[in-house]
Amino acid sequence: MTPTHFTISSAFLLGMMGLAFHRTHLLSALLCLEAMMLALFIALSLWSLQLDATGYSTAPMLMLAFSACEASAGLALLVATARTHGTDHMQALNLLQC
User: Fold this and answer.
1) CA distance 11 to 88
2) 46 domain residue, yes or no
3) What positions belong to coiled-coil segments (predicted)?
4) Are residues 81 and 26 in contact, defined by beta-carbon separation less than 8 angstroms?
5) Are 32 and 15 in contact (CB under 8 A)?
6) Mean pLDDT on 59-80
7) Can you give the pTM of this predicted structure?
8) How many domains does the chain have?
9) Do the domain assignments include residue 37?
10) Which residues, including other chains, have CB under 8 Å from residue 29's CB and lie 6 or more apart?
11) Position 98 in a domain
């Protein structure tokens, strides 16, 4: 495994571990998701550069666009949750009360 692959894999795994173990605030969960998406974007862009094919160069930009949409939807949910519940703690969210 090259150092680049190790760095990208460990960044993705750290984001996943942060999402799994530190689920107290909604903002920290969103930041972990963004770290995972950033690692995937870097891996996909390096992969398309290594293949040296122009057909694969649009995939990282498409994934970055979807990541931006995911971030904006997450922040909108964060604002809506903070307004209705008064906090962004994950324990305050209960699907049975909705």
Assistant:
1) 25
2) yes
3) none
4) yes
5) yes
6) 92
7) 0.83
8) 1
9) yes
10) 19, 23, 90
11) no
Tell me, what amino acid is at 96? L
Paired tokens of 31: 């930041």
Q: Do the beta carbons of residue 71 and residue 30 sit within 8 Å?
A: yes
CA distances from 6 to 3, 10, 62, 65 (A): 5, 6, 24, 25
Structure tokens, 64: 């970055």
User: What pLDDT is recorded for position 56?
Assistant: 79
Q: What is the pLDDT of residue 52?
A: 82
CB neighbour burial string for 23-46, b if at least 16 within 10 angstroms, e if fewer: eeebeebbbbbbbbbbbbbbbbbe
Q: Residue 98: what pLDDT? A: 54
Residues paired with residue 25 on neighbouring β-strands, in sequence order: 89
Helix (H, G, I), strand (E, B) or coil at 27: helix
Question: Does the residue 28 lie in any domain?
Answer: yes
